[in-house]
Amino acid sequence: MKNLKKLILVGLAITVFASCGSKDKESASNDASTDKKNTSLVSDGVLDLGTSADFPPYEFYDDNNKIVGIDAEIAEAVGKKLGMEVKIQDMEFANIIASIESGKLDGGISGLSKTPEREKNVNFSDTYAKSVQKVLVKKDSGYKSPEDLKGKKIGTQLGTTGEAVSKDEYGEENVQSFNKNSDAVVALNSGKIDAVVLDEQTVKKFAEANEGLEVLEKSLADDEYAIALDKKNDKLLEEVNKAIKELKEDGTIDKIVNKYIESK
Asked: Gene3D superfamilies of this UniProt entry (predicted)?
């Protein structure tokens, strides 16, 4: 009888253990499925994007040393649509396209404009924002319009649309390019250059932060921003465009932009 009881107890123990093991496996499976990433577009399921985080309100560091802004939030929203984690790497603007070409990045989102030169090296998504190029000067400079700056020293960020526009407008010999927008503004404040050409929203932020600076009313050029992507990954381009279309239609992009830019 005692042997029979022992056998029954052992049998019950095996049954309970097997049941627990089954639940543990099911739980592990559920956890794995929760963490599952979309690896159909990039091999590791992580969308690595480059930016130059000195371009407020599109990308900048907040008080917690985190990259935030219009581009950062749009990148996160696109990643969510694609079922992918998004990692944003801060770097010099001029290095973003080269890093995509070399395979170090899957793409770039940094107030990038489509240009024929850039399109030789990367794909561009559909545009997600529009802007214009503006001129920042000292308040006591006497300059009233961009035309007044002919023959003067103009500061821009290396590799940007502002640099290209400035060289066309003022001549390459009169344009000094900086790795960071903030360096150009420092040079303006110290009198080393006469003006800085930047995106409208960014130039306003710098004017707000520097009491002695102002933005000229007249614009230099229109601009549109898109996400730069690996030229060898057409499927990624297709899916990113689909995501941008949906984010435009459901109002997400407008909501993000309005969060950082006061509507007129």
From this structure: Periplasmic binding protein-like II (3.40.190.10)
- List, in sequence order, every residue forming a beta bridge with 130; answer none if it has no partner: 224
- The structure's pTM equals 0.78
The enclosing domain of 195 has a CATH number of 3.40.190.10
Domains in the chain, number: 2
Residues 112 and 238 in one domain: yes
Confidence band for 35, pLDDT divided at 50, 70 and 90:
low
Nearest to 38 by CA among 95, 90, 102, 81: 81
For residue range 114-147, list pLDDT tens digits in order: 999 999 999 999 999 999 999 999 999 999 999 9
219 shares its domain with 136: yes
Residue written as token pair 């102002």: 214
Quick one: pLDDT at residue 21? Answer: 42
CA distance 151 to 29: 68
Q: Which two tokens stand for residue 32?
A: 């794995």
Q: Contact 14/20 with Cβ under 8 angstroms? A: no
In a domain, 85, yes or no: yes
